[in-house]
Amino acid sequence: MATDPSKRPGPEQVAIFLMSIGEGPAAEVLKHMGPKEVQKIGTAMASLERVSRTDIDYVLKRFSETAMEHTSLGIGAEDYVRSVLNSALGEDKASGLIDRILLGRNSKGLEALKWLDPRAIAEMIRHEHPQIVAIVLSHLDADQAAETLSYLPDRMQSDIVLRIATLDGVQPAALHELDEILERQLSGKNTAKSSMVGGVKTAADILNFMDASQSTNVMSGVTQVDEDLGERIQELMFVFESLVDVDDRGIQTLLREISTDSLVLALKGADDALKDKIFKNMSKRAAEMLREDLEAKGPVRLSDVEGAQKEILAVARRLSESGDIVLGGAGGEQMV
């Protein structure tokens, strides 16, 4: 039975389109995509089977309809993007997103780094000023940045994470310095005015992708320099929803250490996947009682929910430090 073309995943539809327009045009299109997009589409191309005429017609028609919706209006596009996103999200939320969009459009050197192996990136930047290293890592995806950081000398890692966490914006002079480095190394250039990069969340994301022992060492160094900042990073490294990645035995251990009242309050703000994880690790009767308590609780203040979640996370971290449970996540230590 033929597959409905509209049900094919996005990468497969793109792969069909590119294979339909020929090798030359397809190569030109791929030049404008990021490494992860190219990898997804390349994988889809390699695995395509039984592409029918109906599939091709559907994809080409969809492309034609989408192209017709666009015009050549481009005058003042940068100001328009800023205005629309500021109106939609507010200046605080939109500022970082705007700068990343506009910077990404013009920063060929920084984008080129995303195609490199993390070890190669580390070799390229290891002798640069730590502030430059922090800016570079802030522009990479968290997993790539984490691996790159792991290849840098141990003595540098805590300092770099501190700088990432405290980055509040990049001045033109700093970007100019970065531009010169990348121009020498990659023959790239950077014409962006400024960018909002880094911050506590960026530092936490990078640490989440590091090996557990490396992450612990880095956090120890950060906390020695700035205890408050270390706590803020720690809070974002493992959030309440991350409990869904803890194994069943760990959840059962955690449940023995927390009160029912705290659990009910915390779960009021949890998604279904985490609730199901909790229910699954309780007796049938206990799970039924918890469901009844949740339904009977009624509306609660968000601050109370967040407080209960932080209380449970504190218990989870204590159990993790004592080795009783293993917190999940991309950087979790491998078990043998």
TrEMBL record:
GO terms for molecular function: cytoskeletal motor activity. Belongs to the FliG family. FliG is one of three proteins (FliG, FliN, FliM) that forms the rotor-mounted switch complex (C ring), located at the base of the basal body. This complex interacts with the CheY and CheZ chemotaxis proteins, in addition to contacting components of the motor that determine the direction of flagellar rotation. Residues 10-109 form the Flagellar motor switch protein FliG N-terminal domain. Residues 223-327 form the Flagellar motor switch protein FliG C-terminal domain. It is a peripheral membrane protein. This is Flagellar motor switch protein FliG. SUPFAM superfamilies: FliG (SSF48029). Residues 118-191 form the Flagellar motor switch protein FliG middle domain. It comes from Marichromatium gracile (Chromatium gracile). NCBIfam families: fliG. Keywords: Bacterial flagellum, Cell inner membrane, Cell membrane, Cell projection, Chemotaxis, Cilium, Flagellar rotation, Flagellum, Membrane.
